[in-house]
Design goal:
The protein is of the alpha/beta class. It is built from 15 helices and nine strands. A six-stranded parallel β-sheet has the order 1-9-6-4-2-3, sandwiched between helices. A three-stranded mixed β-sheet has the order 5-8-7.
């Protein structure tokens, strides 16, 4: 799809996007709030719940409080802990089998767990496979009630309309997009994120920052999404360095969860952009974790947007008190983009994807353009030449 047709497609979608209802989960925030899960299941009248998680979280004891609350509420439950990073349709199918006889789902984990749980809840209620629900607005019946308890602060999946599932056959990522996928409840408990490794904390927070910034510059942005994105950006820059210094900082951990939540609300209304399009492709083909892929790409693509987004970036620069009070918008905006590069260096983000060979550049561009063009309301379109230069800057260095 050429640039003109892409712009037309985005323009046609805009009024529809604005009127589609996007629910917000009932949200509980604070240390120890994960133990609300049992009470919420009882309130729903659930007889049996499936807790979806991964094996590490299950074995670490992080689920103990959630499971105890479910037992105390008198609700039967079982646990599926087979979720892997970048979950496949096969994993969703396996979890769906484990959900037999259940009338509610509790997701405890990161973005992969959330996406699996959302796909399972929808597939069970619609008596079909997750593959059949891939695409936009294909969830006819309301999914099983879902309680989302994130253990990372990044994807914002506890408040979004999307579930991202990997297709093993094509080595690509497919999106299930429907407002019905938004969980009924979200519980943001910072105690569950204290044990995260520093690199995971960084990758997930930078994933949330990507959501916020792509929402902020999107063609579908409005006053409400701008407010949500600004909150997320401010909290991440304020608290991520503090949490990396002191991983037990509950105030900082709660702030990052809150940032992820607000960024999720913002991009669920605006969509994302080139960062996600390239990150989905590189992640799907070469096994790069999603947050890391976003982090590597984010400063480069925001710099590409700079000529058409300098006023927007200047607003963020002023919010973060960058530079001098009398600096022009161009200077403020440039300082903000430079700050993105600086944050990556502070967080130990590599400059390149070591698993992404230069020989795959053209295929990656094709797949990213196919995902983005006509769907994502980006502020500035890449020419193929510009995209090639970007990919050459981030792909694996060829041996001399």
């Amino acid at each position: 799809m050429n640039t003109t047709m892409s712009k037309l497609s985005v323009a046609v979608r805009k009024p529809v996007i604005k009127i589609v209802s996007k629910p917000t989960p009932v949200t509980y925030i604070g240390p120890g709030r994960a133990k609300e899960a049992g009470r919420l299941l009882k309130m729903l009248g659930a007889k049996k719940a499936l807790v979806i998680t991964d094996s590490f979280l299950h074995q670490s004891g992080l689920l103990d409080g959630v499971e105890e609350s479910i037992r105390n509420a008198g609700v039967e439950h079982s646990v599926y802990d087979g979720v892997q990073p970048d979950p496949t349709f096969a994993i969703v199918a396996e979890a769906k089998k484990a959900c037999s006889g259940c009338d509610a789902v509790v997701a405890v984990g990161g973005g992969s767990v959330m996406d699996t749980a959302k796909a399972v809840a929808a597939a069970v209620a619609n008596h079909t496979s997750a593959e059949a629900l891939a695409g936009m607005l294909k969830v006819r019946r309301r999914p099983l009630p879902l309680i989302a308890v994130p253990t990372t602060a990044g994807t914002g999946s506890e408040t979004t309309v999307a579930a991202i599932i990997s297709d093993s056959a094509t080595h690509s990522k497919k999106q299930l997009l429907d407002p019905k996928l938004v969980p009924m409840f979200a519980i943001l408990d910072p105690e569950l994120t204290v044990g995260l490794p520093k690199h995971t904390t960084a990758h997930t927070a930078l994933d949330a920052l990507t959501h916020a910034l792509e929402a902020y510059v999107a063609g579908y942005a409005d006053e409400e999404t701008d407010r949500q994105a600004r909150i997320a950006v401010r909290l991440i820059f304020q608290y991520l360095p503090k949490v990396q210094e002191d991983p037990t900082d509950l105030e900082g951990r709660e702030a990052l969860l809150t940032a992820s939540f607000f960024a999720g609300m913002a991009f669920t209304r605006t969509y994302v952009g080139y960062v996600h399009a390239f990150a989905h492709t590189i992640g799907g083909k070469f096994g790069v974790p999603h947050g890391l892929a976003n982090a590597v790409l984010l400063p480069h693509i925001m710099r590409y947007y700079l000529p058409v987004c300098y006023k927007r970036f200047a607003e963020l620069g002023r919010m973060l008190k960058l530079g001098m009070p009398g600096d022009s918008d161009q200077i403020k905006a440039t300082r903000f983009v430079k700050l993105l590069y600086k944050l990556n260096r502070q967080m130990g983000i590599p400059n390149r994807f070591e698993k992404f060979p230069a020989s795959a550049i053209e295929e990656v561009i094709d797949m990213a353009f196919q995902e983005c063009h006509g769907t994502y309301p980006v502020p500035r379109y890449f020419t193929r030449e510009h995209a090639r230069k970007l990919m050459e800057a981030v792909c694996a260095k060829e041996e001399a």
